[in-house]
Amino acid sequence: MNDGSAPVAPMRIVLMATGPFALPTMRWLIDAPHELVCWVTRPPRLSGRRRTIPPSPLRELARTRQVPIWEPEDINAPESVAHLHNLGADLLVVCDYGQILAAEVLEAARLGGINLHGSLLPKYRGAAPVQWAIYHGETETGVSVIHMTPRLDAGPILQQRRTAIGPEEDAQTLEARLAELGVGAVEAAIEQLAAWDGHSPIGTPQDASLATRAPRLRKEHGRIDFRRSADEIERQVRAMRPWPGTYTTWARPGKPPMMLRIERVSVVPSSPETSDLAGGAPGTICAASGDRLWVRTGEGILAIEQLCPAGKRSQGAAEFLRGYRLAPGDRWGDDSPAPSGG
Predict the structure, then answer these.
(1) Does residue 235 lie within any of the structural domains?
(2) Which of 3, 49, 193, 243 has its CA 20 to 30 A from that of 199?
(3) Residue 274: pLDDT band by 50, 70, 90 thresholds?
(4) Exposed, middle or buried by CB within 10 Å (0-12, 13-18, 19+), for 142?
(5) 69 vs 63: CA distance, rounded Å
(6) Any residues with CB less than 8 A from the CB of 59 and at least 6 apart, and which?
(7) Mean pLDDT of 189-218
(8) pLDDT level of residue 2 (50, 70, 90 thresholds)
């Protein structure tokens, strides 16, 4: 990224990251001309029914490339701050770490800290920027590298990179693209800081009036409210994939309600046929034959293409209709509003 006029002096860098969004940046830092002093991460937690530690691609890479690993329970504790000072780092590179850093932590490195964030700040500050950007129908997003302050995602912007959101792109594929896009932004931000005098204003201040929130996802964010439009539900399905996923319930007469995970959908184009089927309560099945499983929404008709009944494997609409008695007029969901965010 340097223009060749003056090489950037190698820095002592501490990477603070937990989630896979940081993996491309870690790879670059290991091979960059800087010294990756250590990788700081949240302590691993047991998860799942078997109470096992989930695999971490960052941990595997760190061990393979012999990067020292540090797992403080609380990075802001006095003993953690003291240890950071002892590392003598020039810069903290933070990405998908999971803790807000106190001023004392940022002051432990000569140049403070930079954070790679998966949105075009100040939009979508918070833990789930990629998901909420899709959910709200953004057509463009990107990454931002900020010079950190103790306020969440509020520091001046050093670098940004933009990219379009594909019409069928889900959170998993978009996040992977943004993670790769962020490498060049981090490299450029480090070069920017290398030329900084340490006192003058640096970067572009964020306009707080334009800030929007991207709160951490909860399971209930996946519940489908069929009173929303077909377009909005289609975006919700893509935004919440792979977690928490999207789901609804089917209140079957004389049987316990069944939870259905809705995995892939599309919006049925408007036509004379859909106009005839569109009337009625949202959540009502308006076509159920062959591979056609259509549901009324608050605006438009949604085609269910892939779903998973509770306790069963994932299946296409045709297979589901062969195994379950579903007919036009049956209804999915309830009338309580689904939670939103952003």
Answers:
(1) yes
(2) 3
(3) confident
(4) buried
(5) 8
(6) 41, 44, 69
(7) 96
(8) low
Residue 110 has what DSSP assignment?
A: T
Same domain, 190 and 223: no
Residues 184 and 97 in one domain: yes
Residue range 58-93, pLDDT digits in tens: 999 999 999 999 999 999 999 999 999 999 999 999
Residue from 32, 316, 48, 320 nearest 184 by CA:
32
**Is 305 within 8 Å of 257 (Cβ atoms)?**
no
Give the residues across from 249 on adjacent strands: 259
CA 98, CA 158: separation in Å to the nearest integer? 21
Whether 341 maps to a domain, the answer reads no
Angstrom distance (rounded) from CA 41 to CA 159 = 24
Distance, in Å, from the CA atom of 133 to the CA atom of 213, rounded to the nearest integer, reads 10
What is the token pair recorded at 64? Answer: 């393979």
Distance, CA of 276 to CA of 294 (rounded, Å): 13
Cα–Cα distance, 235 to 226 (Å, whole number): 13
Closest among 47, 62, 55, 51 to 17, alpha carbons compared: 62
Range of the domain at 254: 219-323
Number of H helices, E strands in the chain: 9, 13
With cut-offs at 50, 70 and 90, classify the pLDDT of residue 48: low
User: Is the predicted pLDDT of residue 145 greater than 90, yes or no?
Assistant: yes
